[in-house]
C-alpha cells in the first residue's frame, strides 16, 4: 500500500511569503532612511534655486533702474496688468512658505559658501556680522543677524534725528495742513492718515497747525492795530500772535531696505512709545516696479505702526511688510505675530491697537526696537522745529534734511538737524 505525501508547497509558499515580506520591510526601512537623509539636501537645493532666481531678478531690476537714472528719467506712476495680477496671487501663503524654507537648518560645511553667495548677489557686508558664518543655522538667522559692537555709531547731536535702518532713501518732505499726502512716486501720493490709522495723534497735530496758520494769515498787517487778545497780561506792550505759536512742522522720510541690508530697526531719537497698531493687509512686493505700479502700496500692505512723543512733539515709525517678509518682530512686544494664517486683508478692517501699560515705553536713540525678514520699507513721520520768519509769505524751517532721495543710509547716521532758536 502506497501513501502519497502531499508536496510541501503550502509550507514553502508561506515561508517564501514571509521572506518576501521581510525583504520588503527591510527595503522600506532602508529607503526610509535614505529618504530621511535626503530631506535636508533637498530643502537646501530648493533654497539655492530660489536664491538664484531672486538674484537673476534683482540683476534685471537693477539694470533697468540704472539705465533710467543714466538718462535722468524719474520713474512715474503707471499701473499695469502685472500689478492687477498680483492681487490674485496668495502672496501671504507664499510668504509663509518662503519663511519656512528660510528656517531650514543648513549643513555646517555649506553655510559659508551659501551665505557668501547671497552677500555677493545682494551686496551684503558679512564682515560686520557679530558671529562667524558657521554659527548661523539658517538664512533667516543670517537676515536678522546682529552686528559687531561699534559697527553703527550713533550721531550724538541732541538736535538731530538718525536713520532707524540701513537702506535707500526714497522720499523726504514736509506735510502741510489737514489731509496731507506723502508722495509714493511721481504722479501718485497717499495720505498720512491712511498710513498711520484714523486714531493717530498726528491728525490733531495737523488740524492745530492748519488752524494756527489760517489764523495767522488773517492777522492785520498794520502793526498799530490793537485788540484785546493781542495784549499781554504780564506787560502792557502788544505782542504778535505769531510769537505765541508753537514752532513745529511735520516731516516724513521713507527708507527702503534691500534684501541684503541689515534688517533690524533702531530708534531715531529718545522718545516715549505710547501705542502700537497692527494693520493686517496684503504683502505686495516693494521693489521699484511695485512702487510705481501699485496704488496705495504702503497703505494696503501689512504694517506695524509705533507712535509716541519725543522732545519736539509727535513721532511715528511704520514698519511695512512685503512679499517674503513673513514676520515683523517687536522687541518691546515679542508676543506680536504678523502674517498669521486666516487673517483678513480688508482695507477697511480696524487695526489691532495696543496702549502700553503705564505711561509709555521709553527708548533711547540708537536702541533696537524691531526687525523683519528680507527687504521692506520704514516710514517715519515726526514733528521738528520750524521758524516763523515770514518773507514774502513763505515759512522758513530751522529743521533741514541732511539727505536726499537716492542716498544710501546706515543706522545712526543723521537724516536731519536743526539749530536751537
Count of separate structural domains: 2
The residue fraction in helices comes out at: 25-40%
How widely separated are the two ends? 132 Å
User: How many helices?
Assistant: 9
- Regions with little confidence, pLDDT below 50 for 5+ residues: 7-17, 24-39, 210-246
- The general outline is globular
- Rg (C-alpha, Å): 30 Å
Model description:
By secondary structure, this protein is an alpha+beta fold. The chain folds into 2 domains: 61-143, no CATH class; 160-217 and 239-417, no CATH class. It is 30% helix and 23% strand. The strands form 5 sheets. Strands 2, 5, 7, 8, 9, 11, 12, 14 and 18 form a 9-stranded antiparallel beta sheet that branches. α1 packs parallel to α4. The longest helix has 62 residues, at 9-70. Mean pLDDT is 76; it is low at 7-17, 24-39 and 210-246.
Question: What topology does this entry show?
Answer:
Layout: H1 9-70, H2 81-86, H3 91-102, H4 111-122, H5 139-143, E1 160-162, E2 167-175, E3 181-185, E4 188-191, H6 192-196, H7 202-217, E5 248-257, E6 264-266, E7 271-279, H8 288-291, H9 297-300, E8 303-310, E9 313-320, E10 328-330, E11 352-355, E12 361-363, E13 368-372, E14 376-385, E15 390-391, E16 394-395, E17 400-401, E18 408-409, E19 414-417
Antiparallel strand pairs: 1-19, 2-5, 2-18, 3-4, 5-14, 6-13, 7-8, 7-11, 7-12, 8-9, 9-14, 10-13, 15-16, 17-19
Helix pairs in contact: 1-4
Amino acid at each position: 500500500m502506497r501513501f502519497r505525501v502531499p508536496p510541501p508547497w503550502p509550507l514553502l509558499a508561506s515561508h517564501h511569503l514571509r521572506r518576501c515580506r521581510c525583504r520588503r520591510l527591510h527595503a522600506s526601512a532602508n529607503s526610509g532612511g535614505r529618504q530621511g537623509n535626503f530631506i535636508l539636501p533637498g530643502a537646501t537645493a530648493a533654497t539655492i534655486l530660489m536664491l538664484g532666481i531672486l538674484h537673476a531678478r534683482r540683476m534685471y531690476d537693477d539694470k533697468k533702474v540704472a539705465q533710467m537714472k543714466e538718462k535722468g528719467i524719474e520713474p512715474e506712476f503707471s499701473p499695469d496688468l502685472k500689478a492687477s495680477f498680483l492681487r490674485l496671487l496668495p502672496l501671504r501663503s507664499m510668504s509663509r512658505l518662503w519663511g519656512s524654507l528660510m528656517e531650514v537648518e543648513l549643513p555646517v560645511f555649506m553655510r559659508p559658501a551659501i551665505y557668501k553667495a547671497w552677500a555677493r548677489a545682494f551686496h551684503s557686508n558679512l564682515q560686520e556680522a557679530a558671529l562667524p558664518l558657521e554659527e548661523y543655522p539658517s538664512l533667516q538667522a543670517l537676515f536678522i543677524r546682529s552686528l559687531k559692537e561699534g559697527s553703527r555709531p550713533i550721531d550724538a547731536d541732541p538736535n538731530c534725528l538718525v536713520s532707524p535702518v540701513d537702506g535707500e532713501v526714497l522720499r523726504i518732505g514736509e506735510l502741510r495742513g489737514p489731509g496731507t499726502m506723502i508722495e509714493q512716486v511721481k504722479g501718485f501720493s497717499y495720505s498720512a492718515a491712511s498710513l498711520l490709522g484714523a486714531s493717530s495723534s498726528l491728525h490733531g497735530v495737523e488740524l492745530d497747525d492748519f488752524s494756527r496758520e489760517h489764523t495767522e494769515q488773517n492777522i492785520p498787517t498794520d502793526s498799530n492795530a490793537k485788540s484785546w487778545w493781542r495784549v499781554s497780561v504780564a506787560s502792557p506792550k502788544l505782542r504778535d500772535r505769531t510769537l505765541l505759536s508753537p514752532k513745529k512742522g511735520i516731516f516724513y522720510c521713507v527708507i527702503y531696505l534691500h534684501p541684503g541690508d541689515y534688517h533690524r530697526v533702531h530708534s531715531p531719537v529718545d522718545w516715549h512709545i505710547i501705542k502700537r497698531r497692527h494693520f493686517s493687509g496684503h504683502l505686495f512686493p516693494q521693489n521699484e516696479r511695485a512702487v510705481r505700479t501699485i496704488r496705495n502700496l504702503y497703505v494696503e500692505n501689512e504694517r506695524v505702526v509705533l507712535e509716541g512723543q519725543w522732545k519736539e512733539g509727535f513721532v511715528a515709525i511704520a514698519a511695512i511688510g512685503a512679499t517674503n517678509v513673513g514676520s515683523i518682530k517687536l522687541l518691546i512686544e515679542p508676543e506680536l505675530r504678523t502674517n498669521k494664517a486666516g487673517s483678513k486683508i480688508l482695507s477697511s478692517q480696524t487695526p489691532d491697537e495696543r496702549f502700553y501699560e503705564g505711561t509709555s515705553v521709553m527708548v533711547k536713540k540708537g536702541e533696537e526696537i524691531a526687525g523683519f525678514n528680507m527687504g521692506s520699507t520704514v516710514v517715519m513721520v515726526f514733528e521738528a522745529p520750524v521758524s516763523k520768519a515770514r518773507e514774502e509769505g513763505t515759512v522758513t524751517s530751522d529743521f533741514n534734511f541732511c539727505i536726499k532721495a537716492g542716498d544710501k543710509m546706515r543706522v545712526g547716521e543723521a537724516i536731519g538737524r536743526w539749530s536751537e532758536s
